[in-house]
Design brief:
about 230 residues; about 80% helix; mainly alpha; single chain
Length: about 230
């Protein structure tokens, strides 16, 4: 079972290769590249996800691809609001603890000037008018949708077939953490992975964790500097 999970993650990781190649093609205008990257990545990710849903004998309904019921609207709104606040509070607590316990390392990381696709998309979204905002919001929505399909929809549900709820919860959060490839943020990613699974289970679908993941990321892009 674990082998199937790692094979799935391997093929999912491969979908980033064409996107990275596009982003490196400096002959293409940078804004066009930014749109092409997210479109290519999303299409390839969906292809891999669809293939493994079939291979693992899962269904789209099983992994939470469904429209929320109107009767659950009030609960889902509450879950989205409380879930987003919880994620942001945890990030703020961790950031504060990191700053107090490891001030030199915190200052070093804070001084780093990050570059790359996500940094460009974030800056374009903040200052690029309607086009930039649309690219940022659309791109972020597609990214978090694929992550929720991968880690909550497929991995968590597949692990539940063999392991207890707590074991599947811990495994899926751990894999979600490792996928982010940033050891300084491992505690943040792990707890977020736990929160997203709990929201997924409580709401009975992917809509709520996708919404919380999306809102959390956008808040950090627009207001994260005020949390330092």
């Amino acid at each position: 079972m674990i082998v199937n999970i790692f094979v799935f993650l391997f093929f999912w990781a491969l979908t980033f290769m064409p996107a990275l190649a596009i982003w490196s093609a400096e002959s293409i205008p940078v804004k066009l590249r930014a749109v092409m990257v997210i479109a290519t990545l999303f299409i390839l990710c969906l292809a891999v996800i669809a293939g493994f849903i079939k291979k693992l004998e899962m269904t789209y309904n099983e992994i939470g691809v469904r429209f929320p019921h109107k009767a659950d609207l009030k609960q889902n709104v509450f879950l989205i609001f409380s879930g987003t606040i919880t994620c942001l509070v945890w990030f703020w607590i961790y950031l504060g603890a990191f700053k107090i316990l490891l001030p030199v390392e915190y200052a070093r990381i804070d001084a780093l000037k990050t570059t790359g696709y996500l940094q460009f998309l974030s800056e374009w979204g903040r200052v690029g008018g309607l086009c930039g905002t649309s690219a940022l919001w659309g791109g972020m929505l597609l990214l978090v949708t694929t992550e929720e399909l991968v880690f909550r929809g497929i991995i968590f549900n597949y692990l539940k077939r063999e392991y207890s709820f707590k074991e599947a919860l811990a495994w899926s959060a751990s894999l979600f953490t490792l996928a982010h490839l940033n050891p300084h943020n491992f505690p943040v990613s792990f707890v977020l992975g736990l929160i997203f699974v709990l929201l997924y289970v409580k709401s009975g679908g992917l809509a709520v964790p996708i919404s919380v993941h999306f809102a959390y990321n956008l808040f950090l892009i627009y207001f994260g500097k005020y949390m330092h």
